[in-house]
């Protein structure tokens, strides 16, 4: 496979995963912003949404206006990571490798891009929520078409690899922002608003029911972190994403009969989850742990790019 083909497949996977993640972040933020707090911290909640999205170029965004922030994250062509831009870039990349995709997968991706025009510009909150639900349904359709129709060859592995790298990065950012930025001054750790935020975080990643099955306990920060970091049964956890990354890279290595730096880096990262304990992670600092993971995930992404995509 040509490196530019692998690059387009890889980034198609990343952009579709990013669009889904942004829809979940925005939906959760709308819920949080609707809850009155002691200090009236609507601005801080939207600032946290921007932080977890990794958005850049905020000079012309009124951070005090929740509507302006949500439109920037969802619809702005000036934001290269907005939902609109992610779906557009995914379609552009997929179109360049059209012959490597099944008809069903191409139609799902192309339909997502066409649907952007049909959705229009939602103005009211209920219209915006409907738009986010459409994004989530659309990205789910793309993932379903990928899983059910693609031949398990290098094209499939590069698509899935991109999605796994992006998912790991997003999960880490989400957990870090909640733990360090979101609880406003005047609100008690362990209080009602803190509880609601952790519950909302679980809803964002479709993990609230899973949490109850695994822990059979009230929502507690260290248990949420344990689920989102170490539990391999949870498909969005860091450990689960890392295991998937290693699996996809090993399948690519088998197809090309060659291992390289990306396989070694990914395997070394996965080994760090062996025997890890959340109580020790909390003692040493969850923020530091997540920042280290993000740095390592970025290093792995660069290694994949140098080894296969350039």
How does this structure look, described?
The chain has helices spanning 3-33, 42-53, 66-74, 83-96, 103-119, 125-149, 154-182, 192-204, 208-215, 221-229, 238-256, 261-271, 278-284, 286-309. 45% of the residues are buried. The model is unreliable at 182-190 (pLDDT under 50). The chain has 310 residues and is mostly helical. The protein is 74% helix and 0% strand. It starts with a helix and ends with a helix. Helix 1 (3-33) packs antiparallel against helix 4 (83-96), helix 4 (83-96) runs antiparallel to helix 5 (103-119) and helix 7 runs antiparallel to helix 10 (221-229). The longest helix has 31 residues, at 3-33.
In short:
By secondary structure, the chain is mainly alpha-helical.
């Amino acid at each position: 496979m040509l490196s530019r083909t692998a690059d387009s497949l890889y980034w198609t996977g990343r952009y579709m995963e990013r669009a889904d993640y942004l829809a979940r972040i925005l939906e959760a933020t709308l819920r949080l912003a609707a809850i009155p707090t002691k200090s009236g911290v609507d601005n801080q909640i939207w600032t946290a949404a921007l932080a977890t999205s990794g958005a850049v170029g905020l000079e012309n965004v009124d951070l005090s206006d929740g509507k302006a922030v949500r439109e920037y994250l969802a619809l702005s062509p000036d934001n290269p990571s907005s939902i609109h831009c992610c779906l557009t870039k995914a379609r552009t990349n997929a179109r360049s490798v059209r012959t490597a995709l099944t008809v069903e997968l191409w139609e799902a991706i192309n339909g997502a891009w066409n649907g952007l025009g049909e959705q229009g510009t939602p103005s009211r909150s209920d219209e915006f929520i409907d738009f986010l639900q459409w994004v989530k349904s659309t990205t789910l359709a793309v993932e379903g078409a990928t899983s059910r129709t693609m031949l398990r060859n290098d094209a499939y592995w590069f698509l899935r690899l991109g999605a796994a790298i992006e998912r790991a990065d997003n999960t880490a950012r989400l957990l870090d922002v909640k733990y360090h930025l979101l609880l406003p001054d005047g609100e008690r750790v362990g209080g009602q608003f803190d509880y609601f935020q952790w519950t909302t975080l679980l809803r964002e990643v479709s993990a609230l029911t899973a949490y109850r099955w695994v822990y059979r306990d009230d929502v507690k920060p260290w248990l949420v972190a344990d689920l989102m970091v170490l539990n391999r049964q949870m498909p969005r956890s860091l450990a689960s994403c890392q295991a998937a990354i290693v699996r996809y890279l090993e399948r690519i290595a088998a197809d090309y009969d060659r291992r390289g730096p990306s396989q070694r880096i990914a395997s070394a990262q996965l080994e760090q989850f062996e025997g890890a304990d959340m109580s020790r992670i909390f003692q040493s600092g969850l923020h530091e742990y997540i920042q280290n993971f993000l740095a390592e995930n970025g290093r792995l992404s660069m290694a994949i790019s140098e080894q296969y995509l350039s």
